[in-house]
Amino acid sequence: MPPAKNGDTVKVHYTGKFKSGEVFDSSRDREPLEFTLGARQLIPGFENGVRGMTPGESITVEVTPGDAYGAYHDRLLTIVKKQQFPRDIVPRVGQQLQTEDDQGRPVNVRVTRIDGDNVTLDANHPLAGKTLVFEIELIEIT
Question: How far is CA 62 from the centre of its chain?
């Protein structure tokens, strides 16, 4: 079978790790991940790793922030007062919430710090600024 190329639908098993070796995601205990190469369904660095593989092949790819979730930007941090939260939401570190930007578009944020009455919200992707390591096994090209 020819190697995987743009337009091919592929199935892969993967394990995503930080450079420290800590695993942040894996498909090993579920169905393989299925996607179409070149359709921009996944981060570019992951797709680039799969492109050219043949079924049964395994590789390890290191993906820098530019080919993953981008750089971490301090400008995406916002400090708000606890009183600005709806009454039914008690902010806690790690909590994921949705708010709106100036144009009314939804923005996902995480509570990253609570300092007295101040709550820090982070709109960066949780993996922004991180180099990621993926162990990828191409299962099938359809």
Answer: 14
